[in-house]
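Q: Joint fold for the lines below.
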Amino acid sequence: MQPAEEIYLDHVSSTPVHPEVLKTLGELLPIHYANSDAIHSAGTRINQLIQRSRSVIAAAFGVSAEEIVFTSGATEANNAIIKGIAFANAHKGKHIITSSVEHASVYGSFEFLENEFGFEVTYLPVDQDGRILPEVLKNALRPDTILVSIMYVNNEIGTIMPIHDLAKIVKENSRAYFHADCVQALGKIPVDLENVDAASFSAHKINGVKGSGVMLKRANVPFLPLISGGQQEMGMRGGTPNAIVNILFAKTLRLALEGEAEHIHHVRALKQRLIDRLSTLESIVFNSPSEGCSDFILNISCLCVPSEVMMNWLNQHSIFVSAQSTCSSKTKQPSHTLSAMHLNQKRLDGSLRIGLGYTNTTAEIDRFLDVLEEGITTYGKL
Amino acid sequence: MANYSAEYILVRYGELSTKGKNRKLFVAKLIERIRQRLIDHPALKIRYDYNRIYILLNGEDETKVCEGLSQVFGISSFSVAVKCDNAIETVCEAAVELMSQEEPSTFKVDSRRQVKTYPMLSTAISAKVGEAIFNARRHTVDLHNPQILVRVEIQENDAYITVKTHKGAGGYPVGIGGKAMLMLSGGIDSPVAGYQTMKRGVEIEAIHFAAPPYTSDQAKQKVMELAKKLSIHQGRITIHVVPFTDLQLEIYKSADNTYAVTLMRRMMYRIAEQIAQQRRCLAIVSGDSLGQVASQTLYSMQVIQDAIRMLVLRPLVTLDKLEIIEMANKIGTYDTSILPFEDCCTIFSVQNPVTKPRLEYVLKEEKRFDFYPLIAEAIANTQTVTLTLKSDEDAIF
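A: Joint structure:
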């Protein structure tokens, strides 16, 4: 039997590299190998390109170049921002707030601050759609709250958080700084950074390369570097810059933003196609909210086939989806977002996350649905 | 929200209007400069009539186009006109919404009808729109001296409204006044001097004196960066990098060291004059500001200038350092200028340079060595680069 064409439906975890980014990577890598901090021409040439990339990114977000720091990815950016702001502002208070549905890198940073450094953490509950309600945040704010960190788009079910309102509430009712993990929002919904003091972004979620992230931190926010080292990145992140990927971030971002409207349009139709057919299947329930949800994420539960079985079945047919956040995939625990939404055990056990990308086609969606249905018929016991 | 969209930008060119016969030339140059600056927006369409230029946005980003326009010399002001349907309710609604984005101020409405079949007279349109804006309780009316003039133009199917007037960069379109050679050191002053010269319609080329290996490649890059920042006002810039080390060493070896700076400056001007003549420049531009350093006293300027015959412009001559810094910040060159790389003026600085040099003594000191071959050699080895707004490097981003 001829192996079937692979169908990649895990774009929330990572995405294929854009051909233009790849081409530039191929052009830069052989020639720009010097240390960008060296003061000879080979180094300064590279440094200039990094600085230009920084300016392009800053312009795209409407901030100044000094407010853009390159990191090894969004996990580092989240760690650096949360710990860096918490440590630098601990003298004003040690209360920090996050949600119960954050990415592991945010959640883990808060637990670390709580367990090792005596910070007091409020983990905000979510409603049945996995959303933080502005009143809930408002009630949690205290005079000693110094940091609030809420993700823009949930990485497991796609819920869009009301970041504009949340940030405004924090500004109006406290002295705390507001951080938004924007990894699943960038290039997928318009990102609004009004009243947002810090934000994290990742390149490989928007068809860039891995090992490449950006932390945006407003100049007025006190901060201590997570990685101490040399003078690199304005003293906010030590270590020899990963020059090539930092340079590539600008193009990756530009392509993502230029294509955003078109990508959304395409992916929205794919998602609707999924929803239309899945709605006819009795054993499928939707975990993603029907309103205020990213077009790129559809989380479902198959009530009659456990996640692991269904994933293996799909995998046999060269179809790749996730059961939960890939960054938590090594644990046997059910998804913490779904748990936070208080779903019943059957839904937790049978959840699947379909991560759409603009490179997916309707033919791929149709084959995925065929295979899924076949799996339910073969292995399902209601 | 009212249904309207930014449609075109109305460009006014105040100072140009006074220039009678040359007008056509001026307008053509201005349009060339606008096109050059807005090269990244190919969909724009440019039209003009006797005293206005109209830039049809044609889908291009309004904010970016405005940002570019504000850097084009020769424009006194410009306004964004929005288009909506010409029903009076829509016009009022759109006008109120546009005005809600403005700081509270005094205003007046001025209306025109292209179609005389429109059911209201111009005065009635103005009154109605004015009333709507006033009722929003943000702005007050002043018919004689309004801070904001709201213009309404009713056409067959649409209405155009302009509210906000952006200040233009002023001056004349670059190139209309010939070309000059800017002495670009890498410091704070010379880029500002270049900017001021371009503002008066004079295109510039730049000359930079490098003293490798005493000065670094980074210092040269910094100068390139500064030149690039200036080039946005004229689309491109040519830079001449003169190797100055041999001349400089010879001066320090042969002449009275307290006069070294004076002699060095005279050599620079001699070289600049020759290259300027080759490049058909009509003047040399320098960032001198009276009394700032030893070579910028009246005495020094006189003695240094004596080395050449070409006209030397010193746009900053009476400005204070703080005023220059403010301007450098405004034109975006300050941060680059203060990068700490040695240039050929700082690296050979002497303890007690003369502030009141005497010409006779200078001439005597210059006789101690034969500098003409060294000047010829420096000119022969000068590297000339032209930077354009678009470069190969753009492909990376």
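Q: Anything notable?
A: The first strand of chain B starts at residue 5 and ends at 12. Chain B touches chain A through eight residues (CB under 8 Å).
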